[in-house]
Design goal:
It is built from six helices and six strands, in the order H-H-H-E-H-E-H-E-E-E-H-E. Strands 2-1-5-6 form a four-stranded parallel beta sheet, sandwiched between helices. The chain has a two-stranded antiparallel sheet with strand order 3-4. Helix 4 links the parallel strand 1 and strand 2.
């Protein structure tokens, strides 16, 4: 967080329940494994698959994002609720260090949102047929992208 990759708000918004679940001994269920396989199939079959990454995900799982990208051929785009260009560049650099081929460039305010996640790349999140959102704010994604015929997968 001191480097600026994770936002202050991200420290409390992500993982509280998940961390507690595993502390008390919860394990991945059979239905969760089936959902994982289904999501993988959806990514493999998608036209223009995209993995949308925030600071928390980059900090916690950059190498896993790289492996997922290599397995499914998806573009990876950084999309942030608390966005600054400096923070986007730091996260993109972190992902590149982990072997991710980051889709970057000039972002435009393309989505009808009242916050910074509206900023994305036309050939990335705006074009994608199947979007995998890593953590946080899935309800917004589903409401926004489903009417456009896009599939949203939550990790």
């Amino acid at each position: 967080m001191q480097k600026g990759i994770v936002a202050w708000e991200g420290l409390t918004a992500h993982g509280r329940g998940e961390a507690f679940d595993y502390i008390i001994g919860e394990r991945t269920t059979g239905s969760a494994l089936m959902a994982e396989r289904t999501a993988a199939a959806m990514l493999l079959m998608a036209n223009h698959p995209l993995i949308s990454v925030n600071g928390n995900t980059a900090a916690l799982a950059a190498h896993e994002i790289s492996a997922l990208q290599k397995a499914c051929g998806a573009r990876v785009e950084v999309n942030l609720f608390h966005r600054t260009e400096a923070r986007v560049i730091m996260i993109e650099d972190l992902l590149r260090e982990a072997g991710v081929d980051v889709f970057s460039g000039d972002a435009e305010q393309l989505l009808p949102l009242s916050h910074d996640r509206a900023w994305c790349r036309r050939e990335g999140m705006f074009l994608c047929g199947c979007r995998t959102r890593t953590s946080l704010r899935m309800e917004t994604d589903v409401k926004l992208l489903s009417p456009w015929g896009k599939t949203v997968i939550a990790i």
